[in-house]
């Protein structure tokens, strides 16, 4: 049985459940933010730092990938962006004394919250194979240890992970190092995030990115927000939705949960938002069952085709379909045969509500569909997103103002990292360009994505794990399996800003390489540097930190990668064997940008254009000229199997989500204000009617047990049941506490993304062991420093 210890926080004993909010932001958001931020940074640093977020000449907010418009306000950040900044700009420090005091076993027993609250890492640390704790190590020694381990294995026995905060410059240099070393083993957080979007959009439209810009949102007549909780995860998007709404757009929310931000928004950056009742955002809320979206968009397609039959020539955009698309007839045939019963079963929606949405669509000249993790982390995520494309193509809602696809990215540069070649399946044209520019033969065989990397580590096929950012151990599924896989490595190396579980659960040898964050001054041999990032709408712009680094020992990601490369591969000398001038490139990031310009399409005149205050937008064929670089040369309609997620009787479909006080595995605090949760995270939200059926009650203490075809029982112990208005048959609980429940092999078709939003579970009365573990945990854990 796979059970993760409930690394609870002592505060969980103070857990309280109140009523959920019906609006997002407003004055409480401002007050709460300032309190959390000032605890980390002090008053003066808070003011100086927050004024530079997302400003020209300032730094890009590390919070999310939502773009900032040209007419940005003086305070272009949000509550959760401020919290993300405070985590990085905190005055707390993890020093060598800290590691002297805490053994590995000690660190492994701490919660994510506790680890994150200790502050910024300050110097390189090494844990040797027989040691029980980390000791200080010099940079050169750290590079030597890593290079030796990499030389001792075949290139495909090493894995190089990236999280989406890494800048374009660091990402480009990193993938270059990895391919120069000889592997495409470049898994990244995107594999667990928007991989399904990328897969579906590349196949159907030819570009795996969104096709809209901010201006399109302001021109849209209908915006459908599906599977996304922007009030918490993309708060600045609410400002854009509010503006779209004022310009006349209708907004429809499709979600199993009535998320506060989608209902009503009080913009904290306006007086009206601070003291008024705010703007109602969603005109319509469809409370869909988990995984029901494919059926919903199929039904909308059917309604449009039927309307066209009633009003020939008035509904579909025939000219667009004939000129720009492929596969319409096969799609239309499939759609006409879709039974309503299946649609209603899959969505859990009343037919009238689906038909009413169909009417809205008919009345809207331009439609945008936005989505995030609610769509990408299911078994049939790729078919679902393809179905959204089908729906949009019917009326030519791609490649014209006010219309298109809008996958809303998570990490602030996750999209840019992919553009820079962080990808385990690089296209041949990218490798060709790399080869032409640098004069070496990059490996051509595909590498491991995140799930395959864990399998390979588990099976002893990987010796070295290297991560630039992120928290691999805790962000990935099947925690018990992943932790064992990590411990199976000879060496694990983490380039990080803050302590997390991946520093506590390691290979036999382990290194921590502390790095600069976005907010900090980055000085290299040729002077002060800036980096660049790409947002969710393909805008590339500069980010320049101004704060003094958390410690003089920190090195930038670029400099760490170059230092390791130099140690591993040598530096270029005339007629020498090494074709890349690693340290010369790292001395001035303009030099890296020049190389990017010659390898990656769309970056012409990179160094000049990125110095413009707003940066520049990357080209996008479908958006700019209705050019679709797909296999058929056209936008592809697809025929998708209508997959209905069914669970055995007495079970629920569980989704694993973010609370308001977390950034993925970084826990800022223990509240989830909009959902009424205070001082605790081990809660499971269930519809009250389902509780009656299951013989449970609000307030019960249960274990969550996941049921999967491999027969392994996975258990997350000790959750308080909360009666909550989620869709029937569905439940929700926070990640990463519930990652132990997600089977490694339960992944999405095509994209191989873990199915974190549809885990079949049952609730069982909490075991005595769970209750005991909770008590023991309380006595062992220490509170966060104040
Ligand atoms: N403050 C903060 N900001 C963040 C993050 C964070 O942790 N904290 N994380 C960043 C990252 S990496 C990402 S990827 C994004 C994530 O942004 P979101 O995708 O908004 O994050 P989740 O909490 O996973 O929320 C998923 C939403 O989809 C809904 N949903 C789940 N399943 C379904 C379904 O089958 N159908 C439909 N229609 N809806 C469904 C859920 O009810 C929930 O509202 O946010 C980014 N921004
Ligand atoms: N069950 C479940 N699992 C999920 C999800 C889910 O919805 N449910 N969501 C998935 C998604 S969408 C994502 S994107 C992944 C996230 O996976 P990751 O990106 O791996 O995880 P994070 O928690 O964002 O990583 C946080 C760590 O990054 C480091 N860090 C922060 N800033 C920097 C920096 O500037 N440089 C460097 N080098 N390090 C930095 C800090 O040490 C911090 O502890 O999790 C996935 N896992
Ligand atoms: Mo993400």
Automatic annotation (TrEMBL):
An annotated Gene Ontology molecular function: formate dehydrogenase (NAD+) activity
SUPFAM superfamilies: ADC-like, Formate dehydrogenase/DMSO reductase, domains 1-3
Xref: Gene3D superfamilies: 3.40.50.740, Dimethylsulfoxide Reductase, domain 2
GO cellular component: membrane
Cofactor: [4Fe-4S] cluster; Mo-bis(molybdopterin guanine dinucleotide)
Family matches, as Pfam families: Molybdopterin, Molydop_binding
Domain Molybdopterin dinucleotide-binding: 652-759
Keyword Iron applies: yes
InterPro entries, per the entry: Asp_de-COase-like_dom_sf, MopB_CT_YdeP, MoPterin_dinucl-bd_dom, Mopterin_OxRdtase, Mopterin_OxRdtse_a_bac, Prok_molybdopt-oxidoreductase, YdeP_MopB
Entry similarity comment: Belongs to the prokaryotic molybdopterin-containing oxidoreductase family.
Designated name of the protein: FdhF/YdeP family oxidoreductase
């Amino acid at each position: 049985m796979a059970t993760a210890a409930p690394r609870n926080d002592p505060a969980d004993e103070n857990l309280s459940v109140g009523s959920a909010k019906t609006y997002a932001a407003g004055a409480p958001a401002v007050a709460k933010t300032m309190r959390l931020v000032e605890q980390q940074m002090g008053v003066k640093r808070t003011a100086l730092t927050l004024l530079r977020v997302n400003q020209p000449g300032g730094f890009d907010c590390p919070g999310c990938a939502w773009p900032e418009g040209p007419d940005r306000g003086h305070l272009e950040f949000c509550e959760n962006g401020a919290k993300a900044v405070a985590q990085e700009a905190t005055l707390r420090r993890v020093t060598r004394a800290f590691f002297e005091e805490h053994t590995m076993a000690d660190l492994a027993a701490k919660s994510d919250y506790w680890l994150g609250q200790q502050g910024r890492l300050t110097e390189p640390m090494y844990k040797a194979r027989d040691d029980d704790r980390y000791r200080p190590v010099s940079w050169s020694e750290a590079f030597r240890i890593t290079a030796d381990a990499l030389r001792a294995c075949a290139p495909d026995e090493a894995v190089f992970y990236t999280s989406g905060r890494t800048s374009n410059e660091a990402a480009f240099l990193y993938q270059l190092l990895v391919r120069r070393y000889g592997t495409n083993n470049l898994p990244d957080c995107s594999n667990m995030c928007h991989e399904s979007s990328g897969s579906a959009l590349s196949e159907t439209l030819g570009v795996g990115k969104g096709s809209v810009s901010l201006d399109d949102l302001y021109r849209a007549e209908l915006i459908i927000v599906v599977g996304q909780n922007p009030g918490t995860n993309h708060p600045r998007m609410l400002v854009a939705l509010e503006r779209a709404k004022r310009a006349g757009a209708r907004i429809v929310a499709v979600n199993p949960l009535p998320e506060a931000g989608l209902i009503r928004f009080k913009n904290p950056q306006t007086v009206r938002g601070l003291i008024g009742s705010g703007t109602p955002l969603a005109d319509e809320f469809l409370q869909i069952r988990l995984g029901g979206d494919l059926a919903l968009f199929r039904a909308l397609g059917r309604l449009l085709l039927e309307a066209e039959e009633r009003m020939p020539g008035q509904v579909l955009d025939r000219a667009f379909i004939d000129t720009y698309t492929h596969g319409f007839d096969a799609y239309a045939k499939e759609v006409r045969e879709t039974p309503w019963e299946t649609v209603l079963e899959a969505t859990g929606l009343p037919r009238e509500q689906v038909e009413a949405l169909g009417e809205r669509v008919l009345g809207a000249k331009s439609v945008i569909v936005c989505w995030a993790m609610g769509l990408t982390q299911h078994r049939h995520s790729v078919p679902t997103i393809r179905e959204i494309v089908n729906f949009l193509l019917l009326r030519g809602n791609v490649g014209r103002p006010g219309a298109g696809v809008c996958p809303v990215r998570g990490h602030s540069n996750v999209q840019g990292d992919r553009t820079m070649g962080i990808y385990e399946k690089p296209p041949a044209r990218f490798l060709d360009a790399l080869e032409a520019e640098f004069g070496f033969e990059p490996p051509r065989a595909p590498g491991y994505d995140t799930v395959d990397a864990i399998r390979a580590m588990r099976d002893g096929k990987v010796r070295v794990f290297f991560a630039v950012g992120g928290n691999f151990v805790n962000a990935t599924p099947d925690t018990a399996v992943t932790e064992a896989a990590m411990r199976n490595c000879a060496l694990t190396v983490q380039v990080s800003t803050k302590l997390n579980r991946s520093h506590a659960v390691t290979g036999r040898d382990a290194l921590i390489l502390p790095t600069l964050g976005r907010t900090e001054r980055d000085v290299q041999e040729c002077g002060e540097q800036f980096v660049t990032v790409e947002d969710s709408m393909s805008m590339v712009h500069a980010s320049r930190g101004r704060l003094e680094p958390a410690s003089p020992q920190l090195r930038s990601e670029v400099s760490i990668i170059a230092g390791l490369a130099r140690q591993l591969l040598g530096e270029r000398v005339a007629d020498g064997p090494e074709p890349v001038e690693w340290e010369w490139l790292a001395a001035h990031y303009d030099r890296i940008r020049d190389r990017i310009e010659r390898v990656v399409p769309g970056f012409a005149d990179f160094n000049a254009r990125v110095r413009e205050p707003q940066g520049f937008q990357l080209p996008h064929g479908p958006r700019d000229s209705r050019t679709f670089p797909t296999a058929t040369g056209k936008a592809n309609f697809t025929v998708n199997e209508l997959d209905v997620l069914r669970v055995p009787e007495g079970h629920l479909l569980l989704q694993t989500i973010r609370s308001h006080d977390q950034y993925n595995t970084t826990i800022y605090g223990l509240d989830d204000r909009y959902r009424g949760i205070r001082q605790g995270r081990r809660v499971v939200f269930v519809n009250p009617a389902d509780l009656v059926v299951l013989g449970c009650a609000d307030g019960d203490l249960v274990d969550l047990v996941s049921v999967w075809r491999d027969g392994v029982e996975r258990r997350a112990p000790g959750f308080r049941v909360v009666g909550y208005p989620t869709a029937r048959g569905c439940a929700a609980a926070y990640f990463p506490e519930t990652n132990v429940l997600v089977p490694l092999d339960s992944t999405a078709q095509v994209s191989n993304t873990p199915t974190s939003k549809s885990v079949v579970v049952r609730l069982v009365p909490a075991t005595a062991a769970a209750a005991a573990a909770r008590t023991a945990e309380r006595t062992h854990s220490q509170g966060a420093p104040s």
